[in-house]
Amino acid sequence: MFIRKKDTVVITRGAYKGRRGRVLEVYPKEGRLLVEGVNMMKRHTRARSRNQSGGIVEREAPIHISNVMPWCEAAGKPSRIVMKRLEDGRRIRVWKLTGETLD
Fold first, then answer.
1. Would you say residue 93 lies in a domain?
2. How many C-beta neighbours within 10 Å does residue 56 have?
3. Is residue 92 part of a domain?
4. Which of 3, 34, 78, 79 lies at a 20 to 30 A Cα distance from 97?
5. Is residue 23 part of a domain?
6. What's the rounded mean pLDDT across residues 65-79?
7. Which residues lie closer than 8 Å to 40 by C-beta, 6 or more apart?
């Protein structure tokens, strides 16, 4: 999975199409990720103590990785990410559009 936590992505499909957001959490086994301010859902919560009130809380729900694309700040548009292996054996992420490294 090429997208990691704190990357900026753009939504390519669905109700939030075209919106950009920061990745909060990545779930590689499910192929999903949490994007800040995208795919909001309402969760009904019960008051756990006297000073904590219950109610309806809005929070992000995971979105499938096929519905997002990484956002390249240098190019100002979405781009794919490729993995390159260095001479010392390390793998780094590189923007396909510009050739710059991410890590």
1. no
2. 8
3. no
4. 34
5. yes
6. 94
7. 58, 59, 60, 61
